[in-house]
């Protein structure tokens, strides 16, 4: 029996690197997490596990724990939802094939976004976004946003999204991602826990949220991202309640993308809310 309570452990289980649309390389992200007191960091790039090997070796050097993760883009009833996978084996064939398919869809969508932007007089957006994506890396709307800011079309990424890249705006195109149940299946096949990311971001009614959570749980989902950089404090409390009533574990993650773009620093959010069972209680 320990004579003193264990030192508080800082978890941040949602973060991006240059392997998707983050601004820091996997090694730089891990170094920054360590410098900010993170003990356990999950690298959760969109639809790609390419950054994990570099992050894992940087984590060994920094003596912190790296959780290999991914954030899978999925579609549920015409809504885009994101499913974080924690402790996934990136070499698992079902996960790797699924992610390759989603990335191919991203590439096709990027062409359509560029065509839509060309309609309003913005030329070269495909090449511009790909340059920000860094060649063979995955392309996201965040790369289009950085290109449009560089072109002087808007003053910040947030401003670009508001004016160009969200539903109803000229550069938005609808897209079918992985069906939600498939995304969950890939993550679980790869040995991971499936976490519904930033639930407060989805434009659904309370009834719709309950149906989404029921679908997620019935398809094998494990946890809800109760504490998120995308949530207000009140939303964290709301989703703690949902986690309890749906029997889901609770996760926490900043969704950090980079020092200039993210409002919440790595490791700056509270770990677990009272009455929830943390996702790491099963590790
Ligand atoms: P995608 O998965 O390609 O549709 O792009 C989604 C990504 O765009 C998110 O992961 C964020 O990195 C970024 N993003 C989405 N909405 C906003 C916003 N309002 N302001 C800034 N970045 C955003
Ligand atoms: Mn992103
Ligand atoms: Mn997301
Ligand atoms: Mn994310």
The CATH topology of the largest domain comes to TIM Barrel
Give the overall average pLDDT. 96
Radius of gyration: 18 Å
Taken as a percent bin, the fraction of beta residues is 15-25%
CATH superfamily of the largest domain: Metal-dependent hydrolases
Shape: globular
CATH architecture of the largest domain: Alpha-Beta Barrel
Termini distance? 20 Å
Domain tally: 2
Order of SSEs, N→C?
EHEHEEHHHHEHEHEHE
Taking the sheet with the most strands, its summary is:
8 strands, mixed
- Low-pLDDT segments, ≥5 res: none
CATH level-1 class of the largest domain: Alpha Beta
Describe what you observe in this structure:
With 283 residues, the protein is an alpha/beta fold. The chain has two domains: 11-99 and 178-282, Metal-dependent hydrolases (TIM Barrel), CATH 3.20.20.140; 104-165, DNA polymerase, domain 1 (Orthogonal Bundle). It has helices at residues 26-35, 52-62, 93-119, 125-133, 141-150, 157-165, 180-189, 206-218, 233-246; strands at 11-12, 40-43, 65-76, 79-86, 178-179, 193-196, 223-228, 249-253. Strands 1, 2, 3, 4, 5, 6, 7 and 8 form an eight-stranded mixed beta sheet that branches. The model has no long low-confidence stretch (mean pLDDT 96). The chain binds adenosine monophosphate (AMP) and manganese (II) ion (3 copies). The site of one manganese (II) ion (MN) has 4 residues, from loops.
């Amino acid at each position: 029996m320990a004579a003193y309570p264990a030192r508080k452990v800082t978890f941040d289980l949602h973060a991006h690197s240059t392997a998707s649309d983050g601004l820091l390389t996997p090694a730089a992200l891990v170094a920054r997490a360590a410098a900010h007191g993170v003990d356990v960091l999950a690298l959760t790039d969109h639809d790609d596990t390419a950054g994990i090997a570099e992050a894992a070796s940087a984590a060994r050097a920094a003596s912190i724990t790296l959780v290999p993760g991914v954030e899978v883009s999925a579609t549920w009833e015409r809504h885009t939802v994101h499913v974080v996978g924690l402790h996934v084996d990136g070499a698992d064939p079902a996960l790797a094939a699924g992610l390759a398919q989603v990335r191919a869809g991203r590439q096709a969508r990027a062409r359509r976004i560029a065509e839509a932007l060309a309609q309003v007089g913005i030329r070269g957006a495909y090449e511009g976004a790909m340059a920000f994506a860094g060649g063979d890396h995955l392309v996201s709307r965040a790369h289009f946003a950085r290109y449009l800011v560089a072109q002087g079309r808007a003053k910040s990424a947030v401003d670009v999204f508001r004016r160009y890249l969200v539903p109803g705006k000229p550069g938005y195109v609808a897209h079918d991602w992985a069906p939600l149940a498939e995304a969950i299946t890939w993550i679980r096949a790869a040995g991971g826990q499936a976490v519904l990311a930033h639930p407060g971001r989805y434009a659904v009614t309370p009834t719709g949220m309950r149906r989404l959570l029921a679908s997620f749980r019935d398809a094998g989902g494990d946890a809800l991202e109760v504490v998120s950089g995308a949530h207000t404090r009140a939303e964290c409390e709301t989703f703690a309640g949902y986690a309890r009533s749906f029997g889901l574990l609770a996760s926490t993650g900043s969704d950090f993308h980079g020092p200039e773009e993210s409002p919440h620093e790595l490791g700056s959010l509270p770990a677990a809310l009272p009455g929830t069972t943390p996702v790491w209680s099963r590790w």
